[in-house]
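Sharing a chain and its predicted structure for anyone who wants a worked example. Both blocks are below, sequence first, tokens second.
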Amino acid sequence: MAELRRYLDTAPQVEAQYAQLNRDYDVTKAQYTALLGNLQKARIGEQAVSAGSVRFEIVQPPMALYGPVWPRRKLFLAGVLLGALAAGAGLAYGLNYLFPVVSSGDAVGRSLGVPILGRVTVAFPERERRAFRRDLLRISLATACLFVAFGVALVLNQSGYRLSLTALKALVSA
């Protein structure tokens, strides 16, 4: 009974060893098959060279480019910028179409179809001008920041850095 229990305890170890041996055998067999194929190719090459029928010469060694062939990064970044600007303009136009804003008294008269009898002008025109200038400054600063970020992305791209989330996380954590 004790001997059967000992066999029962060693069975998983033997199965694991058997599976490992099968994996090792498969890897070794694949390597052997590849080497045998290379040997056959070498023998055929030697026969061709000795017969003089085929002559191999390396005219120019192969070279690999350091940068990607496609997409062209600068063009891609410019396309992303233009796409973002177009999407923003489209969103603004769509929101204006869905929720129209009336900007003048004449527009109110045209949309309602009734004549306008009077208008109330701005009570504090200087405050309105300051608010307009402040809004114009904010939009100008946001646009300038967008183009500065685009320029930074181009400079980083030119110097070999690739912008990705993992690179940004590594940059922030460093």
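Comments welcome. The first helix runs from residue 2 to 51.
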